[in-house]
Design a protein that fits this description.
By secondary structure, the chain is mainly α. It has a domain of about 210 residues: Rhodopsin 7-helix transmembrane proteins (Rhopdopsin 7-helix transmembrane proteins, Up-down Bundle). Helix 2 runs antiparallel to helix 10, helix 3 packs parallel to helix 8 and helix 8 runs antiparallel to helix 9. The longest helix has about 55 residues. The termini are far apart. Keywords: Cell membrane, G-protein coupled receptor, Membrane, Receptor, Transducer, Transmembrane, Transmembrane helix. It is found in: Cell membrane. This is Glucose-dependent insulinotropic receptor. Its main location: membrane.
Length: about 350
């Protein structure tokens, strides 16, 4: 009996060492991903806030909210990364449930913000003459308040409905250690898939409108009424069509595998193990929060101009700071004609 225990000890130590290495690797990946998400979305939020204050555009408030929601995703994921890097980590059941509720609420707010941005752009294309009458400050604020309330309800649903919780003594705070599969099924069927279908419908309808505009312009050119160069509207519509295709593809490829695997896992636990969903598919879904600021903000000319102005202001401030030094006279400082830095050192 003693020989078996002695013989099993190295094997158990080897398994625990492998688990610790895997936990550290996952924590490092989560930390890097969360840092990139926070940095990108905070920068975009600052740029959008400056642009909204100058232009007064109400529709950009939805994009600003998307950046804030994705930044919140990064902050909540950073907490999970710290837990992975500080193993062994022993937390209570209530603490883990609250932490995962904040993660779920942030992800839900990000997805709902995508829907609001899609609705705003769809309305701008469908009713361009009535857009500014429909999209007012109070209505935008009401939509944003409703979005965060709905995201909080979705995320904190297991806190109020105890049958969605799973009693587990496992040390790791994760979805499948804390929540019942019925909660994941509820989020998939009542939350994600309807939102995905609405998202696809709105953007496909915008794609249809853009293709009609391009077709009309081509008919005018064939009739000899247009110039030799393609009009700017045709170029912008073609760019919009490519942008829509990238948006749909990135959102679908990021979130769809996670929700499909979570749903199928209830009927076939061997098809998608928990570790595959949590360590790989969920990381893919989190990558959408890093792509959103690039897709929704950096491709807009106004935001690009604001970014260039911000970079120029930072560069000018740095040069001014260096110019105030002893050996780097500024623009307004007249340097002594006969004294150099080497002479001062001598």
């Amino acid at each position: 009996m003693a020989e078996n225990r002695v013989g099993d000890a190295p094997s158990l130590w080897h398994v625990s060492r492998e688990a610790a290495t895997a936990s550290w690797a996952l924590g490092a990946i989560l930390a890097v991903l969360a840092s990139l998400i926070i940095a990108a979305n905070v920068l975009v939020a600052i740029v959008l806030l400056c642009h909204i204050r100058k232009s007064g555009s109400k529709g950009l408030c939805f994009v600003l909210n998307l950046a804030l929601a994705d930044a919140m995703v990064g902050f909540t994921v950073m907490g999970l990364a710290v837990d992975e890097l500080s193993q062994p980590f022993h937390a209570s059941q209530k603490f883990c449930i609250l932490r995962m509720a904040f993660v779920t609420s942030s992800c839900a707010a990000s997805i709902l913000s995508l829907i609001l941005v899609a609705c705003d752009r769809h309305l701008a294309i469908r009713k361009p003459f009535h857009y500014f009458q429909l999209v007012t400050g109070p209505r935008v604020g009401l939509c944003l308040v409703g979005l965060w309330l709905l995201a909080a309800i979705v995320g904190f649903l297991p806190v109020f409905i105890l049958r969605f919780q799973r009693i587990s003594n496992h040390w790791k705070c994760s979805f499948f250690n804390l929540f019942q599969p019925s909660y994941m099924l509820t989020m998939s069927c009542l939350g994600f898939f309807p939102a995905l279908f609405l998202f696809l419908y709105l953007y496909c309808d915008m794609l249809k409108i853009a293709s009609v505009h391009v077709q009309h312009i081509q008919e005018v050119e064939q009739a000899g009424l247009g110039g030799s160069c393609p009009p700017p509207r045709a170029t912008s519509d073609m760019k919009a069509m490519r942008t829509v295709a990238v948006l749909i593809g990135c959102f679908t490829l990021s979130w769809l595998p996670f929700f499909i695997a979570s749903t199928v896992q209830m009927a076939c636990p061997e098809c998608f193990p928990y570790k595959v969903i949590e360590n790989f598919l969920w990381l893919l879904a989190l990558g959408n929060s890093l792509l959103n600021p690039l897709l929704y903000s950096y491709w807009q000319r106004d935001v690009q101009l604001q970014l260039s102005q911000l970079a120029a202001a930072v560069k000018r401030r740095v040069l001014l700071h260096l110019g105030n030094g002893r050996c780097f006279p500024g623009r307004d400082t007249k340097a002594p004609p006969a004294v150099s830095c080497l002479e001062l050192q001598d």
